[in-house]
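1st attempt posting a full record on here, be nice pls
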Amino acid sequence: MSEREFRAKLNYFRELIDGDLDGRLVVPNGYLEQAVREHGANFNLSESEVQRFVKHLETVYRTTQENGHILKKNFSEWYTTEKKTIDFHYWRRLKAFWIQKTVLPKAVVGSIDAVTDEIMGFLGNPKDKESWNRRRGLVMGHVQMGKTTNYSALISKAADSGYRIIVVLAGLTNSLRYQTQVRLDKSFVGKSSVSDATHTTIYEVANILGFGDENYRARYPFCGTTQLSDFNTATAGSVGAHQGTFAEPILFVTKKNPKVLAKITDWIRGLGNGAPLDGPMLVIDDEADNASVNTNVNPEQITAINKNIRFLLNTAKQSTYIGYTVDSSAKLSQCSR
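the predicted structure (as tokens):
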């Protein structure tokens, strides 16, 4: 059986099983094997093929994700009310992509949706014109909890809500930065960040909402970094961004490196001729317990990466910092005073 034939039959089984389950989340033991044998009776499947389909379907229908818990202090949630007026695009297409084109179960997508709605409620409200340069939060989970999946959804919702500068601090190495850039290109940007006038790789998520609509025009964020390179002024300069002209958000995926962070900070300051931008800015710190924390005992002596994150956040009048970690013992110091 070719891979294409396998995928076609797998999608066939998923459609029939979704109809059988009618939204139920619990799959009884033995149900998937029985479903494959019954729905695939006309395919003359071998025993090994039956088991192959069952194993793939188990990754879809036996995968769950529980909602998390929130600790908060002196803050009123805004997103539940505001999202009724938001014209969702980036989140709507990512959700459709996950459901139609990946193995993520609908129940898991629903859980991600609910959890990131809660996180959004504790970010600064982009429609609030007052300065709120002190929104800080931490998302903590278990190993392999799907951090990138979670913040891909969060970034999409933040972009739809009005965040215009999005910076992802993707670890300390080039390989981690590259992996994160590729994943966000495929889930949020919609095309490869490595492109030129003659060749651009468009990913499925970009056009999933336009199926059958010849008038549909895909939208893409600006990219201040690429799969090939971390931030540099030449790449950023090609974006053509100026203060107040972000028709679409601009995404940076960068290492936690003092020199690189300083370059991004200087470039953003240059957009406002040295004055803080209106923003809003969202900074997502992947593996926030690694190198981001100010570990100096003397609070007046700040570690280089922590100091540069603070400087970056202060380039916008409105900025939110969200750290992601899987280390339950991690403690984050404030990134600004």
